[in-house]
Every structure is written in C-alpha cells, then in structure tokens.
C-alpha cells in the first residue's frame, strides 16, 4: 500500500512531539521490532535514502543522529551530549516490523526500540536556551481551514516534501501547529522551531514555497514569475503565520549513553 518516499522528491515523514516521544515505551506500542540489519555505508555511497513499504523500513547513508532525529521528531541541534561518531559515521539500516503496514508514528516507536536494543541508547529530555525560530500568528490572524468531518483513508498530520528547483510543499490533514513546527525544523530550517501560536486545534491546509536553501548540490530556485515565495513569506501569505528568529528555550534530547551498533 505504501510507496517508497524518497528524500527530495516525495513526501517527507512527519514528526512527533519530543516529550511525548521520549515518554512512549516501545513495549506499549502496536508494532514491534522484529529484526534490524545495520552496516556501514559503502565508501562510494553518497545519496541518502529514507523509505518504508509494508513491514520494511530503510534508512541508507544516514548517521545515527539522523536516525534519532526521525525517531524522536527532532532537529539536529536538539540532540545534545552525543559522541562525534554519532553524527559522522553513515550506515545502511534495514528494519522489519512484526506487523504489516505500520504508520509513520508507529515506525518511529520501532526505531526507538532499535536504537535502545542495538545501540543501548539512553536519553532524557532537557531544556536549553539556544537560537531558534518562533512560529506565531500574523497580525491578520490564521488562514487555515477547520478539519473536515470525514478524511477517508488519508493519514492525519502535517507533511513537508521537497521538489525540484528548491520547491517546498506542505500538506496538513487535521494537523496541529506543533506538528507544523516540528516538520519545519526537521525538513527546512537550520535550527529548532518553537510553536508559540497559541492555536490548540487541528487544521487542514496546503502551502507551496521556495526553500531557504538548496537540497541537492547545484540546485537553483525556479527563475520563472510563477515561482512560489520563500518559506517565510509563504507562511504569512498562505497560512497567516510568522516565523521569526529568536533565542529561546528549546526542548532537547540529552544522550546519557550510546554505543556503536554491533555487527549483524
């Protein structure tokens, strides 16, 4: 049922609120880890791949920091206290769950279980003051629509994907502002994004924008007059939201213990 999601040209995977993710235990989740194969990436490999289909999940040419970012819905700067190799050595990871068709959120729990079992990862939540972006409501108010009563089989949440010419596309089905902030920090921004909109409901919305940075080497923005505005402008014009730089308190994940993955 699920097609592989390729980084850069397909929908990116959604996020989870940090403290909720830390508190969840894999044993309490539905799908469980059946087996995981972890091996160093080949020297000639340079293209990162993330995808899942059925019971299989793959994350290739990825650091353990990137795996942890996905598993806990984090931006790289929110992981503190990890050793140097954690964000330097790349691995090819193939995971098999014991249940068919896990959701994105369930895959995150499975990966948390893998990190605990194979890397003996132990973490705790921690608050730190650091440079971030603050997501807030613009002066004219939000422009998002309330959710429909019936969404069919579409999975709820916020998705941010990348396309050619630095295209960024956002789609929310009953998504929250916390999920939007988490996706922005994971996919687009170079620092954490803190939700201070005060909006507690869920919304349906779409947004098209031009990224603040190229995703691939040599990638350039769309030069045509129809090119969407940069992300900061698109948030204001299309969603009625602001994204402003600020130094503020951010929820982080502090690494207490981690070991290099054992041989398969």
Automatic annotation (TrEMBL):
Q: What is this protein's record name? A: Uncharacterized protein (TIGR03435 family)
Under the heading InterPro entries, the entry gives: DUF3738
Q: Which organism is it from?
A: Granulicella mallensis
Among Pfam families, the record links this protein to:
DUF3738
